[in-house]
Structures are given as structure tokens and as C-alpha cells.
What we know:
The protein is an alpha+beta fold. The protein has 3 domains: about 20-225, Heat Shock Protein 90 (2-Layer Sandwich), CATH 3.30.565; about 230-385, Ribosomal Protein S5, domain 2; about 410-540 and about 605-640, Rossmann fold, CATH 3.40.50.670. It is about 35% helix and about 20% strand. The termini are far apart.
Amino acid sequence: MKAEQIGRYEADDVQVLEGLEAVRRRPGMYVGGTDTRALHHLIYEVVDNAIDEVLVGACDRIDVTIHPDGSVAVRDNGRGIPVAAHPEKRTSTLELVMTTLHAGAKFGGEGYKVSGGLHGVGVSAVNALSRWMEVIVDNPRDGRRYRQRYQRGVPSSPVEEIGEAMGQGTQVTFAFDESIFEDVTFEFETLAQRMRELAFVAGGVFIHLVDEREQPFPREMSFYFEGGISSFVRYLNRNRSVLHQEVVYVNHRNNTLGIEVAIQYSDSYAESVYAFANTIHTVDGGTHLTGLRSGLTRTVNEYARKQGILREKDVNFAGEDVREGLAAIVSVKHPDPQFESQTKVKLMNAEVRAMVESVVVDALSEFLERNSQAARRIMRKCQTSLRARTAARKARDLVIRKSTLESLTLPGKLADCSERDPGKTEVFIVEGDSAGGSAKQGRDRQFQAILPLRGKILNTERARLNRILQNNEVRALVSALGTGIGAQFDVDGLRYDRVILLTDADIDGAHIRTLLLTFFFRYMQPLIETGHLYIAQPPLYRIQAGKFERYAYSEQERAKILEEIRRGQPTRGRSASTQMYKGLGEMNPEQLWETTLNPDNRTLLRVSVEDAAAADRTFDMLMGASVPPRRRFIQTHAKEVRRLDV
């Protein structure tokens, strides 16, 4: 092939990006993208630097404030970023840290023994992605206060002395660049969950979060937990009945690595295990999580063999048997953490696994030997889980075998589409046969499939997998999607690119939607994580005045439209008639297509899990067996729900 056929490649085609321009050109490499999660990562990077000061014992308070204009200030009472001229670069160290990638005190020396930040990339990346930033340092070295401002990562003023120091520490204030992060904003609840985690894992730090956007009364929360990760585990289990009151806790330190583990079992079926490295929540786990899991499985099996609970011919408990009902935190402090990416989602240090496993084996073995009653409860739960897992495997195999014989894995109630490329298709999970009939008539048969489910499916929060797979509606759902379920889930088998929940717009529809979301979160969570699960938004009202016709999706929108009609806009002298859709079945196929199915007009909400620990607690509280927490939640939020006059 001739060179001119494939395009030129000469010396002047090679670009060199100076300073922080690479960050602005490729933000995904540094903060994971430009969506809401990446936006919050900007705050996390700045707060992580403050937490580093906590880890060396130099800081015990962090204040995070969202200002009315959307800018954010993070202040700590640590040692303050040095402002003196750097001996090699001959410029202020503050400016060097804030404007240069890979400039920081975390490569070695005495600055930080342990750090959550990734070697000076974080805060300079935040600076690059901010419309403006201001850093104020109260310098304990000379008792003076210093300031420098930046525009999109470039200093707009020199480092200047502005008076006497007010205590000590660093305050970073920034406004993210709207040209990079479009149509996103900071969410108080997301930040609160992160600050709570940090207060648990760092231990001994007071974190104060304030949202001044809510006026006249700013929203604020404070976090301080003396018990550290033991308190975290109790917090995870606060709505559950625990099998032992004492939290199994160990804090092991050697010359290079610190390992903290907290473990407690409850009577729930869910596994709530979270891993942290240098206070960073590694959402994809890593070697420390692998060490925790292998240590648990090894210890429980050795104890069961020793006590005769597992006989010679019996198979060992599997990892999922040992972790059913487990709430656990593993937190490691490493002087040189190796993460999978800048967003720090997975710890890669190979030596950590064996060290964590050893610590877990020693601590849990000692606990089981010392607490025979608790040990018996844990063993009984593992045995029950093993029996249920065996039954679930048989039920799952039966579902797969039966599905294979029935129309190439498709349940009879599924109205499939003709398109065979999964990337171009979608399936609507519809509430009831009546709504399913309208949806089947109104859909585009080329790429839209309809799966009607009868009534409310089983509450999967209160049942093991073997019982869940006995439910006909669940079996139909599993067969239609083609992914398998639970530990055997494989997203590559997904037959549709979009799985869309389509339920009535009333309270009963919301309940059915919650039951379905519980199922997907517990048994098909990768479907959510890969962005395939959606919620449709059908209208609640149809409003007509003469030739004028509008659909309202809430009480507030209905009132607004009626007020427009009353004022003569857009129609004059016409009385309005309002039709409330008590169910999707009351909409004719054309109306359902126009409002909910047509990709050109509809609104879909993509389901995501920003914080797995928070979602786990919420599903447990809303759908679990414990009534008082659910009652408190309903009473707290009752005023936010408008009653519908059905």
C-alpha cells in the first residue's frame, strides 16, 4: 500500500502539549471523564490532599463549602503547602505544586509516609479543569498568609503575601470549567457519603460539609467517628439483626504497611464489603480485597473442619457462602500504592494480598476460638447458604435448560423485535398484561421488545437465590435478557442494549419499579454499572383545551399547564379537560408511542450507582425485614410527596 493512500505522518504532525493542556484535552485520563462522577472527583482530589495531612497527624479538621455561585472551598488545618522558592525550579513551591503535573511531596523523603493522592497529579489536574482557582496558605513556618489565583490552570497573579496567618493550613477554592463539565452540578448527598466514608476510614478527623446554595438556610452535615472502621461496620449493619455484637477488629502495622480490618455478620442475605487504600475507596477492589476474601474463606473452612461441622466427604464452603450476611471493611495504608488508573478504582500492589490474608486469618481464628456461640451462628449461616446455593444452582440450570427448549431461550410472553444486533435493540419490562398489550401495539417492532410481568414481583431483598428462581416472573426476566444471574451473570450475553423499566406513573408503579431495581441491584448489578438499565417516564395526565394538547408528568407540571390555559396562553376562551392515567393500559397505543416509546420524544433516566455502600444501605432499609428504619424514612420524607386524588 502506498503511503499517500493512508495519509501523511511527518515530524510536524507530532504535537507537544505544554503545561496542563494535556489535562484539558484529555480529562478522562485524569478524573475519569466529564460526567457527574468526574465532576465530584475534582472535590475528592482536593480533599484527599487534606486527608494526607490527617494521615501524618498534622490535621484534625476539614471544611468543605459549596458557595451559592457553585464554587467550592476546601480548607484544612494542616501544615500548609510550602511557599518558599523551590531549590531546583527557582519558583514558588506553591505555584509549582498547583501548575505542574507530578510535582509534590509524595515521591519520597519525609513529607508523607502514606498518601492517598497520586504523586502530585490530582490538585494540578483540578486546577487545569477549573475556570478559576484560588489557593490561600496560612504558613506556620513564618506566621504569614499567602495567596495565588489561576485561570484554567495558568497563574493570573504571583504568589503574594496578604497578612498574618490565621492559624495554619491550606484553603483551595475553585469553580469548575463549564465548557468541559456541561449540564452537571455538585450533589450534596453524593458528597456527604464520601465525607462520611473518609471520616470513618481516616479516624480522628472532623469533616464539616456545607451547601450554601440552599438559602436562606444552608444545608450542612458534620462527620466524626472515634471508632473508625469498626463504627463503619456498625453503621452498615444498623438496620440488621447481627449474629454477634462484637466487631472483629484488627489494626496491624509493620515497617511499610498498615492494615485495618473490621468484620461483623448479620442475618441478612446481602454482602456489604468495601475496600480502601490510603483512605481512597477502591470501588473495583484489588489485592487487599482479594486478601480479605481468601482469608475469610480459609479461616471459616479450617474452623469448620476442626470442629467437625464439615466432614471429610463434605465440600468446602465457597466464598459466597462465607460472605453471605457479611459486613466488612478492609483499609490499607501503603507508602507506594499502585492503582489501576488515576481515578484509583483498584489497588494493584501484589504483596498486599498475602499480608492482608495473614492478618485476617489470625484475627478471625482468634475470635472464633474465643466466641464459640458466635462461631456456631456463623457456621450455621454458612451451612444454610451452602444448601441454598446448591438449590439455586439446580434451579438456575433448570431455567437455562428450559429456556433453551423454549423458542431459543425466549419466554412465551416476550414480544421480541426483529433486529438481531443487540447494540440496536431495547426491551421494555412492562407492568401488567393490559399495559403490555398497549406497548406491543404501540412499539416499533424493528428494535423494541416488550416483556410484560404480572403484578408485583418477589421482594428479592428478603429471599435467597434458590427461592427467587422459583418465581415465574423472575425466570421469564432472566431468560429474556440472556445474561444469567448472580455469580454466573455475564453482560456479554445481554440480548438488548437498553433494558427499560416501564411502570405506571402512580405510587403502585413506583413500588413495582423499586422491587425491580432491588432485583437488578442485588443479582444483576453489572447491568447497572455498564449503563444498560433505564427507567421510562410515562405521563400522569393528558390535558386538552380545543386543539391544544399537552402531557404532564407530575402534579406540579399539571398545575403549571392549567395556569397557562387559565391565562389564555396558548389557547383562549377554552375550558381544559384533564385525563389522569391510572395505569399504562388506559393509554391507547398511539399515545404510549408518542409520549413514552418514541426515541425522538421520550425521556429515559439511566440508572447508576454512584455509591454502592449508600445504595446497599438504602435497599436494605427500604426492602429489608426491619420495620422501624423504614417507618422513620417514610415519616421524614412524607412532606416531600404530594398525595394524588385517584
